[in-house]
User: What shape does this take?
Amino acid sequence: MSSFRFIHAADLHLGSPFQGLAMKDVAIAEMFIEASRKAFSALVDQAVERKVDFFIVAGDVYDGDWKDNKIGLFFNREVARLERAGIPVFLLKGNHDAESVITKTITLPKNVSEFPVNKPGTFKLEHLKVGLHGQGFAERSAVENLALAYPKPEPGWFNIGVLHTSLTGREPHAPYAPCSVEDLRSRGYDYWALGHVHDFEIVSTDPLVVFPGNLQGRSIREQGAKGAVLVTVEDGRISYERIITDHARFGELALEIAPDDDVLMILRRIEARLESIAGDMQDRPLALRIRLTGQSRLRNEITARPADFRDEVQAACHRSHADIWLEKLEMRLDPISVGAALPTDILGLESLIPSGAFPPELLADAETKIAEIASRLPGGIGAGELPLGDDAAALLAEARDLLLSRAAKAG
Ligand SMILES: [Mn+2]
Assistant: This one.
């Protein structure tokens, strides 16, 4: 068997709107949007430098239909660099860039081959004795087990199955082209290049079944290092390594504060925890979600003016590293329960506003109103995404705290 190497990438989601960070931080949002493109360019650089023999993208090159041709022009320019380096590219359509979803088109260079969508197809690299089998998505939703219809392996060749799938279920990813690892194994291939799940995962080692994850995290739900996989086959022996491509990262920091902490002390605690985080950034900007918990005598004061306190926390982030951006500040503080003087509730607000769990009809009403607001927000809100990053109960609790603490201050 010949020796060769290839890159397996998936879920580029080019054109994906940026989710997270305050809308007012347009420059910061731009930096993160730019990161998705830079990540793909970095991967193309690696493919050319390491002289790979071919390049696979297992679905979701595009995040959805193009607003204009900008993203198609970008992709063409990058894959043309692969063509000039003599590297063939194999694309598969996923749920986000299914045949019926993408209406615009830019002619791609001759090195690009795309798997058919109505039946499985095979591409052969005769000189390497490599066969690539795959079927893309015709529609956004693919409910059949596509893998079962994949063709028999080319005998004596290195066979690769390319498939966009959630396997038997990978929450929170939508269930598409469902199949079991056993179904894949039954095809008798040497490697399965999967796409759809955004986390890197070695699903099986015999045969090697891999989700490379996406190239760039796009929201707080996509944390940690992101990239593709470089697979090397030497005399029938397969090895792989990850190529990290992300140019910006998302992270989370949970911190419990002490009841008597003043604002300065809270900021000092945050800065102390940021030291190691800043050390790990390797020149990437970081969008950080900070969650504060614990009892605090400052709870009412802070909750009454959330924007000022948020700016203080952002400033603390910048004192630790110039490129730590506060993605969100989650305040989960409890009032001090013992010996605390309750504010005089002149208006009787506390008795009017439900404490504890909210009644279902109030939650339903809140959800309707949030949906109304979401439909008027600028781009960036995907279908099924919670527009304000929290569920209705958490938003109502925040609103209740804000109202009560302002009323307490006024009283
Ligand atoms: Mn997908």
About this structure: The first strand starts at residue 4 and ends at 9. The chain has nine helices and 15 strands. Residues 4-244 form a domain with the Purple Acid Phosphatase; chain A, domain 2 fold (CATH 3.60.21.10).
